């Protein structure tokens, strides 16, 4: 493990029995887990390279219990790591040896659905897909669809600002959440947002979404639900070069079309996927594009023709149009199975998540090939082409000594490359522990200090999910200091008061 | 009133640090279109941001536009329109409400006020389209957050916090916005003579259907006679035609007309400028749960309130000079809040511009404001919202 987490506090660990007893007084019965064997399932999240059993697990069932647990831990200076379903790919729910792991799985109820105002109120442990299941009979759905949607929880989606393949048209979690109930580290409960579209004051909801469990624990979420489109159709388009596929994406958007989904795969990813699911992906192309249009049938028909025309003009070597729902799903089957497919051609893979300006794609893929040779590891690429979100899958073997470290070094180089061309470290997976130490590649000390002071407004003791997102833990008092150099005016010529 | 007009981030940082040091309060101003919002006491200097004007970077195919915060809205909209694109949140320009010309507002002011137009319920607000900003906080430090790409979750989403912060956290120098293709066709479907309850039911049914209106508004019966409920459909030609036909079937019990060009322009012009809401009385803006709109109207109309609805009922503009506390209680009861937008005659002198929040939330908000502005440089009192215990940190 190349990553350093905050040094565990031995004095806190020594109080483990006392802490368990105090938490049992709040959450009785089996809601507190301290048996080492039963702590095992909680030792990692979706970033399985990192493992650390928590000191204790507490599984509250009511917001009052959440509030009481946090208030007690706050009073005692005990750290807390919140967890939804544990599917984070960036280690956002990685436990700490001296922290209580607060699991929200028991908050699993859909509380209310209002079809007239098109909102659903759910508890945070409800899975992403369960929200859609709860409203689909009435013709509605919940738009964000991260690939873990069968397992990941809405609370986790709020923490990570999760995306999915339909983000370009329908937005990320933050664009689809209207309000939350939040318990802060001191146990105080606030409601942010709600049924009105604008907040009365600052948009604190906007910063809580995507705050990776550092600002508070969400106990209720109000989401926007959308009417299911009348139809959806897809094109499967092969190109002889990544450049022409990229040009096609740009030309589709220039034609005023925002597809529901626009995915690109490179040659290694195409071959791995086709070998896995056999859906007839062309194997003689360098890049494959899946473009999905949704909406009224008249609109889909019109736009399918437009996209096909654009693709041909950009030199597509093959173009299939889905004739029915089964064929549309077949087009997607390979893309959706890309990760496990790559898992078949390599013992392990490490999934990266940078975003780049789309026009830089050919250059980025080329430099990624050089990095691949340099690190001695293969890479396959799937790409949310519409919004520039790149998922390189680095192939390695965890049983080969040094391979994981090489994969991590390769991954870090890829993310630095993304930032260098004007992109970002993470498009939808979050910073967590994984990209924490890369944050200075994107932000200055001053930028990061402005973010960390926000943390101080919510959790001045830095007890909630410490060691995530920020490379350096600054104490709030230190961050709050303001240096004013009286008499040293940099621009004496500027008109003053 | 003293005026500062920096043109670089370094000058701006110096001006703000200087103000922090000598206790001067700064009111950040762009085009001045919203200068009439908030009439509280102002022992302030004005920070004129128009020096930060200009197009910095625009790549239509990437859907990303970066401009200086002081760039006039009109210039930004003209630029994107020339490339067949738009700011999908439909910026709302306060200028006409205060007798100023349309389009003089700056893009930084639009972002700072977080004001979106009729497309808000469907396409999101300013918050959903601000990708990145640069600015100088009340600490006198230049900083940035976000990125010039449409999908990014790196670090806290500070761009959201800047939208609607009304110049109380930072002076923005540069903003990066997501732009989208402009619709090729627009048509309106009009139903006359509905009462508020019927209108809200019609708007909810349309918004919850595959007709996908891009806007739904209701204007009560006035000089033009019967009330107007209008649904706007936008997109590619074949799609708009299909959805208009669907809408007509869906609202079968009502007569659905397509207004002629002149009427459509008059209606949507009134929605954009709120010209009918200029009756000399204070203007309120109620952001509420859409389903509660009829109850709000029922509570306030009998007391003489004049109103119109946008956002399918979720936004109510109200001309009213009766009990301010009643307006706020009514808005809270409707799941929302009421902002006092215009009160040039001081009917509600001393009343906070924004609806006060519950104590725990108000305290949290104060801590967030202090995080960005420990010395209270941007606490001008303009919005009559100074916390009783301001608790300003002492600079050392």
From TrEMBL, chain A:
This is FAD-binding protein. Its cofactor is FAD. Keywords: FAD, Flavoprotein, Oxidoreductase. It holds the Pfam family FAD_binding_4. The gene is glcD. One of its GO terms (molecular function) is oxidoreductase activity. Residues 50-228 form the FAD-binding PCMH-type domain. Coiled coil: none annotated. It comes from the Bacteria. InterPro entries: FAD-bd_oxidored_4_C, FAD-bd_PCMH, FAD-bd_PCMH-like_sf, FAD-bd_PCMH_sub2, FAD-linked_Oxase-like_C, FAD-linked_OxidoTrans_Type4, Oxid_FAD_bind_N, Vanillyl_alc_oxidase_C-sub2. It comes from Chelatococcus reniformis.
UniProtKB/TrEMBL annotation, chain B:
The keyword Lyase does not apply. It holds the Pfam family FAD_binding_4. Keywords: FAD, Flavoprotein. One of its GO terms (molecular function) is catalytic activity. Residues 1-182 form the FAD-binding PCMH-type domain. InterPro entries: FAD-bd_PCMH, FAD-bd_PCMH-like_sf, FAD-bd_PCMH_sub2, FAD-linked_Oxase-like_C, Oxid_FAD_bind_N. The keyword tRNA processing does not apply. Coiled coil: none annotated. It comes from the Bacteria. PANTHER family: D-LACTATE DEHYDROGENASE (PTHR11748), GLYCOLATE OXIDASE SUBUNIT GLCE (PTHR11748:SF103). NCBIfam families: PRK11282.1. This is 2-hydroxy-acid oxidase. It comes from Chelatococcus reniformis. The lineage of its organism: Bacteria, Pseudomonadati, Pseudomonadota, Alphaproteobacteria, Hyphomicrobiales.
């Amino acid at each position: 493990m190349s990553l350093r987490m905050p040094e565990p506090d031995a004095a806190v660990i020594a109080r483990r029995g006392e802490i368990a007893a105090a938490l049992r007084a709040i959450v009785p019965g089996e809601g507190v887990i301290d048996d080492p064997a039963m702590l095992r399932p909680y030792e990692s999240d979706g970033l399985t390279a990192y493992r650390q059993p928590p000191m204790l697990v507490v599984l509250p069932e009511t917001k009052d219990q959440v509030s009481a647990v946090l208030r007690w831990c706050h009073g005692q200076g005990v750290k807390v790591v919140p967890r939804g379903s544990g599917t984070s790919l960036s280690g956002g729910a990685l436990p700490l040896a001296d922290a209580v792991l607060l699991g929200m799985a028991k908050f699993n109820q859909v509380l209310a659905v209002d079809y007239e105002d098109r909102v659903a109120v759910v508890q945070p442990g409800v899975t992403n897909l369960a929200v859609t299941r709860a409203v689909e009979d009435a013709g509605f759905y919940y738009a964000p669809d991260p690939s873990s949607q069968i397992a990941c929880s809405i609370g986790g989606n709020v923490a990570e600002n999760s995306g999915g393949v339909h983000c370009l048209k329908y937005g990320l979690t933050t664009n689809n959440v209207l309000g939350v109930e939040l318990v802060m580290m001191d146990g105080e409960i606030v409601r942010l947002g709600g049924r009105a579209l604008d907040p009365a004051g600052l948009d604190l909801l906007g910063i809580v979404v995507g705050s990776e469990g550092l600002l508070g624990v969400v106990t209720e979420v109000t989401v926007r639900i959308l009417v299911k489109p009348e139809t959806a159709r897809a094109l499967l388009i092969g190109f002889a070069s990544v450049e022409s596929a990229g040009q096609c994406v740009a030309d589709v958007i220039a034609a005023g079309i925002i597809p529901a989904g626009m995915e690109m795969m490179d040659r290694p990813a195409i071959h791995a996927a086709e070998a896995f699911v056999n859906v007839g992906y062309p194997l003689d192309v360098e890049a494959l594009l899946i473009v999905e249009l949704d909406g009224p049938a008249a609109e889909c028909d019109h736009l399918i023709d437009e996209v096909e025309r654009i693709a041909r003009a950009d030199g597509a070597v093959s173009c299939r149009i889905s004739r029915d729902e089964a064929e549309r799903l077949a087009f997607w089957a390979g893309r959706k199975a890309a990760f496990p497919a790559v898992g078949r051609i390599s013992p392990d893979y490490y999934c990266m998540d940078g975003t780049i300006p789309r026009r830089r794609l050919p250059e980025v893929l080329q430099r990624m090939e050089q990095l691949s040779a340099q690190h001695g590891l293969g890479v396959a690429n799937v790409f949310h082409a519409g919004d520039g979100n790149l998922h390189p899958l680095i192939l390695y073997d965890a049983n080969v000594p040094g391979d994981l470290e090489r994969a991590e070094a390769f991954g870090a180089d890829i993310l630095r490359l993304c930032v260098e061309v004007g992109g970002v470290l993470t498009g939808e997976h979050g910073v967590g522990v994984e990209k924490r130490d890369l944050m200075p590649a994107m932000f200055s000390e001053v930028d990061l200090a402005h973010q960390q002071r926000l943390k101080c407004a919510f959790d001045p003791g830095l007890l909630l999910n410490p060691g995530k997102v920020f490379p350096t833990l600054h104490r709030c008092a230190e961050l709050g200091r303001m240096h004013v150099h009286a008499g040293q005016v940099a621009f004496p010529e500027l008109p003053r008061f | 009133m003293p005026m500062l007009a920096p043109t670089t981030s370094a000058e701006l940082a110096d001006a703000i640090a200087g103000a922090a040091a000598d206790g001067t309060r700064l009111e950040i101003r762009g085009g001045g279109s919203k200068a009439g919002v908030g009439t509280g006491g102002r022992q302030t200097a004005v920070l004129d941001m128009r020096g930060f004007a200009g197009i910095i970077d625009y790549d239509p195919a990437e859907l990303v536009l970066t401009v200086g915060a002081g760039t006039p809205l009109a210039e930004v909209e003209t630029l994107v329109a020339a490339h067949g694109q738009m700011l999908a949140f439909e910026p709302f320009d306060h200028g006409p409400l205060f007798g100023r010309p349309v389009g003089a507002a700056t893009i930084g002011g639009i972002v700072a006020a977080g004001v979106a137009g009729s497309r808000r319920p469907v396409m999101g607000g300013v918050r959903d389209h601000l990708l990145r900003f640069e600015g100088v906080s009340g600490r006198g430090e230049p900083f940035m957050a976000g990125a010039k790409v449409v999908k990014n979750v790196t670090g806290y989403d500070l761009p959201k916090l800047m939208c609607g912060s009304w110049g109380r956290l930072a002076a923005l120098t540069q903003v990066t916005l997501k732009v989208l293709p402009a619709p090729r066709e627009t048509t309106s479907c009009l139903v006359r003579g509905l009462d508020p309850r019927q209108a809200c039911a019609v708007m909810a049914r349309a918004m919850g259907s595959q007709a996908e209106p891009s806007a739904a508004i209701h204007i009560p019966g006035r000089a033009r006679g019967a009330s107007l409920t209008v649904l706007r459909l936008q997109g590619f030609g074949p799609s708009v035609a299909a959805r208009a036909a669907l809408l007509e079937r869906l609202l079968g019990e009502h007569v659905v007309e397509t207004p002629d060009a002149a009427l459509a322009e008059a209606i949507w012009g009134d929605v954009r400028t709120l010209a009918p809401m200029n009756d000399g009385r204070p203007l309120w803006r109620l952001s509420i749960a859409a389903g509660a709109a009829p109850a709000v109207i029922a509570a306030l109309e009998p007391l003489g309130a004049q109103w119109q609805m946008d956002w399918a009922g979720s936004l109510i503009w109200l001309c009213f000079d009766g009990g301010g506390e009643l307006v706020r209680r009514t808005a809270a009861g409707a799941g929302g809040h009421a902002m006092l937008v215009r009160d040039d005659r001081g009917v509600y002198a001393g009343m906070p511009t924004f609806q006060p929040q519950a104590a725990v939330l108000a305290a949290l908000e104060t801590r967030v404001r202090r995080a960005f502005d420990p010395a209270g440089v941007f606490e001008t009192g303009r919005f009559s919202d100074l916390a009783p215990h301001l608790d300003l940190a002492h600079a050392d």
